[in-house]
Amino acid sequence: MSSPNPFGPFDFEQLRKMLEAMGLGNPEELDLEQLMAQVQRLQQAGGGAMFGVTNADRDPDAAWRTTLTAAKQLAAESGADPELRPEERNAVGDAERLAQSWLTPRTSFPETGRPAKAVTRAAWLDATSDGWRSLIDPIIDGLAEALKRGTAEGVGQSDPMAQMLEPMMRTSASIIYRDRLKRELARVAGDILTGTEMGFNLLGNADVMIIPANVAQFTRDLDANERDVTLYLLLREAARQRLFHHVGWLSPQLRALLGHYSREITIDFDAIASQFRPENMDMENLSIEDIVAVGEKVRGSFFDPARTPAQVEILDRLEVLLALVEGWVDHIVAQATEGWMPNAPQIEEIIHRRRASATPVVSVFSELLGLDLTPRMVRDARNLWAAVEHHRGAEERDAVWRHPDLLPTAADMSDPLRFAAGTSGEASESEDEMDAELRRLLEGPDN
Length: 447
What we know:
Layout: H1 12-22, H2 32-44, H3 55-58, H4 60-78, H5 86-103, E1 117-118, H6 121-152, H7 160-189, E2 209-210, H8 212-219, H9 226-246, H10 250-264, H11 269-273, H12 288-297, H13 309-337, H14 344-355, H15 360-369, H16 378-392, H17 394-399, H18 410-414, H19 416-421, H20 433-443
Parallel strand pairs: 1-2
Helix pairs in contact: 2-7, 4-6, 4-7, 5-9, 6-7, 6-10, 7-12, 7-15, 9-13, 10-13, 13-16, 16-20
């Protein structure tokens, strides 16, 4: 006969569901006092001994270092990541200086004063490590909270069982997500061409960074000269870093929006918990590999598809801000290459096609955050910056970045001429030739 229930009164139907979700069986067939003692032993062992979890898995700092190391190993396995030769670094430095000389007459934002860096994939991961972690930690916390809520659903948050299982939930959440994370980081590291190609500066500095191994891979099947593509990419990266460096609020606001979105994420707990049911795994011999397998099985439905109103608002703001950044870069680089680089329009079209394709760089935020950022407004943003320069001049164009309240909205991008002319709600009385041409570009050939 079982010992008296050490937890107090239960709704056994709710407890049965909770324990089955955890793979612990039917409470009517368990000695709950013995189960309590087992959980206490697990807690004293660090909360994850039954999974074969290491000390590194229980230490967030060590867990992050382990994940980053695994990502670098996977990136190396996916393709060559050779150390750069001095002549390669020198060639990048020479090309970046040329790019800066072309950009300087076209923008009021001066050079950052930091030298260009040609880096390996592993070095890019190291350089962006802190930036990635600031985005990812809220996701792991959210997943742990979802698992904790699931285990406590039947017994209440203050129940001893829920409190003792909590450390295991945090560790399990970390293991599940980190396996997903290392694979996505490896894919991005093997694809990204420059340090901030994603539109976000996760570097924490204004370095103009390029990954030559990825550029060589990207240009292998292109009808374009690799040196010209490298120069064009450095122009874009240098322009973007000038903007990030001199617009002090821009990078922090982008990171804050991403962090806020992360904190609002809801986890599809049902999809995860269903994989822990007894019929789906051997609980007596549960291992870290089994936990990782859970993450793989629920990969396609990891995040709850329902978005909160706050997330919808954040997504809209991010899309507008990223479009303004990339549209400004497109406009500045087109001007900088005019008269100097005859094949720039062809390379620009290649970059636009890449931006619209499902590359790891484009899809990483969808995979890791459930955040679908699309480049659909970039052309409108580019036309807007051209219109502002036409009406106000290059210096006033860049002055729009002085404060976030001065920036165009999505509605402004749909009618850039009105924003550029400084009219509030009413259309301009007349259009000059440049205005007319910009409007034709926006409306398209069928309108």
